[in-house]
What does this fold into?
Amino acid sequence: MGENKATAAMAEGLITSEALENWRDRVGLKLRIGNIFNQTVSYEALRNFVNGVGDSNPLYRDEDYAKRTRYRRLIAPPSWLYSVFPTWVLQGLPGVHAFHSGNNWTFYKPIFVGDTIRPECIFTGFDVKPSSFAGKLVMEYQRANFYNQRDELVASTKAWLVRAERAAARGKGKYVGIQLPHPWKEDELKKVDEEVLNEQIQGDNPRYWEDVEVGDELPPVVKGPFGLTDIIAFCVGAAPVQIAAHGVQLQLYRKHPAWGFRDPVTHAWEPIYGVHYNRAAASSAGLPYPYDIGAQRQCWLINLLTNWVGDEGWLKSNYAEYRKFVYHSDVVWLKGEVIKNYIDENGEHCVDIETSGVNQRGEDTILGHSTVILPSREKGTWPVERRLSIK
It folds into this structure.
């Protein structure tokens, strides 16, 4: 097996000057996307995705309901594009861990059942920075564009990743003081369940721009306690990395030794992606417990925003930074507050919203901001109609 033998332990790479020089030569290149998952927007793919992120909006799952809207058929939520591919390609720095740390989205056109989506990804640069987590790290930047079968740009996003040496992260032990799993009390869990079920969806009741004021708060969306099934459900709907089983999996790891490791408890081969559900993998990356997927958390945030704008509103842009890890057993309260309403240069009625995702420890795990476009009662404008007419 020679050089292609999969390693029993998780690969330990270093951030070297030579590796960074090689990277510098690649800046601006279009990257090969080797794992496109949901390319065709089928009903089943859409159903699995919205189930996987816990989005109960009927606009994305009820065909009869969707026929009565301005769209006339089922559409996908903006976050569905994460299920095409996770907006970034793992490239370079083998054995150096990659933490997806945020996205800055712009959405241009709706995505319908029956559409086919073609992604592209470009490596746009990197910075080397000091780090309290791993001594030093590399911030890696990529840009992804998504086109439909008519070559129309549906959406684009800038993505950034933290690349950190695993051994250095373990040595620093930045997060070892967190009590995990969280010691919930039964009455606290009952309250969380009620908050989860109290999610409000604006739906077919238009939210007009004239009715929105600065300081208005969005009804929260609550996710958690976060657990293994939440990870499984997201993988079924979005498959953010290449996951395989048995011989197919082992062939993959022999071809790419840094992608897999042998679990010290079960002795099974597992992907590095197992940091999201495997304690040994998380520990090897310097974390005390398995944690969520960054894209998954931004899907929750988009869930909050699409709930609020209703069927007639449009999510124009969505920026989010993943500031803390969401560990198994954590709860996240996703919230938003209107900070500005205005008419833009295109005459569209916009609302800027500041967003957060606070856990039970009072930490903001996903701070950000978004812009939505709402219908105007006075002007008789409908942002959905405009998106449907743009060629």
User: Anything to note?
Assistant: The chain has one domain: 2-389. The CA atoms of residues 13 and 95 lie 4 Å apart.
